[in-house]
Amino acid sequence: MLGTTYVAQVFMGTTDYVMLAIMLLVSMSIGVFFAISGRKNTTKAEYLLGSRRLGMLPVCLSLFATFSSAISLLGVPAEVYTYGTMVFYTGVAIVLAYLTAIVTIVPLLHPLKVTSVYEYLEMRFQWRFMRLLGTFIGVVSSVSYMTIALLSPALALQTAVDLPLWMSIVLVGTVGTVYTAIGGIKSVVWTDVFQTVIIFGGIVVILLK
């Protein structure tokens, strides 16, 4: 009929499922590798900090992957499309905040060899309650963020290829939890490096197409 728009429903094919399985298997394999290779050294410093011997490049790429989740990849383009480029100033503010932290906070915390900022709170105020309070706020913040970080790609997959919402959340959440738990920070960093390569590769392919 005149004026009627038909939208074809897209479903995941065999290749799509294979690529999804490869991504999950590689991520899990990285966790298993570091779990096996690091079993002779099971100290807290090794598990949480990689014995403080992680290279600058993988750590930078890991931080990029951490703060550039589906929330950024889906949310920022939608924000710009709907409201314009004002969101750009948020990026400027973040860069300025990082530069300020480099010359103020990092020189303070790095020589102390603390495991987390919560440990510093207890040292600074000589009160364990401050550490527990900071930890509680941090856990609530992280859980809230991860909820949206898991929901965003799940909604995209559900809309684009009709993949059930619960399946995406369970798959990604389970794999991420397992490789983090068994491999420690080294597993997280190198998995993030792998995922960063996938992110940039996907963006390049989309732009070329």
TrEMBL record:
Segments crossing the lipid bilayer: 17-36, 56-76, 88-109, 129-151, 163-182, 189-208
Keywords annotated in UniProt: Cell membrane, Ion transport, Membrane, Sodium, Sodium transport, Transmembrane, Transmembrane helix, Transport
UniProt GO molecular function: symporter activity
Topology relative to the membrane: Multi-pass membrane protein
Compartments in which it is found: Cell membrane
InterPro entries according to UniProt: Na/Glc_symporter_sf, Na/solute_symporter, Sodium:Solute_Symporter_SSF
GO cellular component: a single term: plasma membrane
Gene3D superfamilies: Sodium/glucose cotransporter (1.20.1730.10)
Similarity field: Belongs to the sodium:solute symporter (SSF) (TC 2.A.21) family.
PANTHER family given in the database record: LD47995P-RELATED, SODIUM-COUPLED MONOCARBOXYLATE TRANSPORTER
Name of the protein described by the UniProt record: Sodium-dependent multivitamin transporter
Source organism of the structure: Candidula unifasciata
